[in-house]
Amino acid sequence: MPHSSYKAIGILDSGVGGLTVFQELTRQLPHEQIVYFGDTARMPYGPRPDEEVRRFALQIIDFLQNQEIKMVVVACNTATAVGLSSYRERSALPVLGVIEPGVRAALKQTRKGRVGVIGTAGTVRSSAYEKALQGARPGLHITARACPLFVLLVENDLVDTPEAEKVAAEYLAPFNLAAVDTLILGCTHYPLMAELIQKTVGSGVTLINSAEEIAGEVKSILTERRLHHPLQLTEPGYRFFVSGNPHSFEEIATKMLHRRIKAYQVTL
Amino acid sequence: MPHSSYKAIGILDSGVGGLTVFQELTRQLPHEQIVYFGDTARMPYGPRPDEEVRRFALQIIDFLQNQEIKMVVVACNTATAVGLSSYRERSALPVLGVIEPGVRAALKQTRKGRVGVIGTAGTVRSSAYEKALQGARPGLHITARACPLFVLLVENDLVDTPEAEKVAAEYLAPFNLAAVDTLILGCTHYPLMAELIQKTVGSGVTLINSAEEIAGEVKSILTERRLHHPLQLTEPGYRFFVSGNPHSFEEIATKMLHRRIKAYQVTL
User: Fold this and answer.
1) In terms of domains, do A107 and A203 share one?
2) What domain range includes position A64?
3) In this structure, are B188 and B152 located in the same domain?
């Protein structure tokens, strides 16, 4: 086994949502190189059959493994929910999903044991969060709801509109009724509309941002396995690939990350 | 300026020809990572207008510069002949072409000062080899000839056929007449048919293989600029990208390199 610490961290997502994870990684691990793949031609993953999402994710992992990486971060809740164990079987590298870190953070935060989960249709249908939460602490009161329009609001830059407020009020009402004290943002797009979500559920509810949690977990794994880049790079490189139009991805990414990025379209 | 020695060497070519350079680099520099781009959808470059070849090469250099490289090797004689100075203007990295190393090697080899050059139509039309040879040693007797079918023989696996012998005899006759003692293989495809060429011109003529020469030059530049990979990688990674069908590229490359490689199609 070659010592691979000098390699990059690979991130896969269905589109731009995983950029919230990218951003947290660059903040918490400023000396690491990153390769990002956004499957923009086939997003959103939420409404797709599990089998299809798994197949897409495996294709992307194959691609990333050809780009000199030391670790795979599945920065997409849907892809994590429907296939994390398959990806781990396929890859000799550490493969980290977004669900476990979010679950651990929620368990730390909740005071009354009343936890909410929002995600895509695929994520909520998989019950991956419920299973992980119940597995870790039986007796938790869990409320989960799919919020399929949220991804589209973010991807189409419609978060700051009256329609978005209406949609949020509709989707999030059950969490007020259930009196949750902690709400897992179970989709990497949601941190991009955290303000609206917080306003809608009220300041008494703690939002769990998967991006922050997963970045912390990546850091721990790099430390445990001694995989931190040995050269402490001062300007580590970031490489971006997409399956769809690179220009619209570049535009959203440049806005989100406050830095100009260049993406290339790859055929998987 | 960040210290970039840990980055890869970037190679650009119109197709598979540059793999002869790739192979020499892996032999002479076994600890270096390499990123290879083959513009298979737009090859051959030989018959294209200079302006177009320059534009394509600049697009590829932009792509390679986004893939964490420390140096650009233009492993295509046509692209080198028509635009090396433009590429050097565009890039802050060292940019090496295939012509200068071949010229230096030919000057070392020739005993009678009678040098031959074979290349694509674009390379021969540019007179890049003649200018460089004459510039370095005025009074040399130079014979140059375009051999456009050679690339097609190689790309279509037709080197070991009677037609190929006929074509070679036809193209190479002027070099016997001119009594050259040294023949520059001014196209990275030609080393793949070196045996036929040698047989045709006779064993008294020394063939200059650009691939070997450029690899030596890359090595010198890495040494001079202290750019050798600092970790002495035992299994350095190789990344392959193409503009056309990756499968046919993979097939030829796997045969040429005696190792299974994976290529991805990128849209420039």
Assistant:
1) yes
2) 4-97+212-265
3) yes
Burial B89-105 (b: 16+ CB within 10 A, else e): ebbebbbbbbbbbbbbb
One domain for residues A16 and A148: no
Of the two residues B195 and A47, the one the predictor is more confident about is B195
ipTM over 0.90: no
Q: What is the pTM of this model?
A: 0.90
A2, pLDDT greater than 60: no
Q: pLDDT tens across A184-213, in order? A: 999 988 999 999 999 999 999 999 998 888
Q: Do A144 and A180 belong together in one domain? A: yes
Total number of domains in chain A: 2
Residues 6+ apart with CB under 8 A from B96: B71, B72, B73, B74, B214, B217, B218, B221
Under 8 Å between Cβ of B214 and B101: yes
Cβ(B217)–Cβ(B193) below 8 Å: no
Contacts (Cβ under 8 Å, ≥6 apart) of A141? A113, A114, A115, A178, A180
Are residues A261 and A224 both part of a single domain? yes
- Beta strand ranges found along A110-161 (DSSP E): 114-119, 141-146
- Pair B201, B109 in one domain: yes
Q: Are residues B92 and B218 in the same domain?
A: yes
Omega prior to B44 cis, within 30 of 0: yes
Q: Which of residues 22-51 of A touch B (CB under 8 A)?
A: 33
Can A76 be counted among the known catalytic residues? yes
Q: A68 in contact with B at a CB cutoff of 8 Å?
A: yes
Helix (H) or strand (E) holding A73: strand A69-74
CATH code for the domain in which residue A233 is found:
3.40.50.1860
pLDDT of residue B60: 98
Instruction: Write the pLDDT tens digit of every residue in A130-163.
Output: 999 999 999 999 999 999 999 889 888 899 999 9
Nearest CA in chain A to B268: A264
Is B234 an 8 Å CB contact of chain A? yes
Q: How far apart are CA B197 and CA A117, in angstroms?
A: 70
Half-sphere exposure of A208 (CA within 13 A, CB side): 31
B113/B193 same-domain check: yes
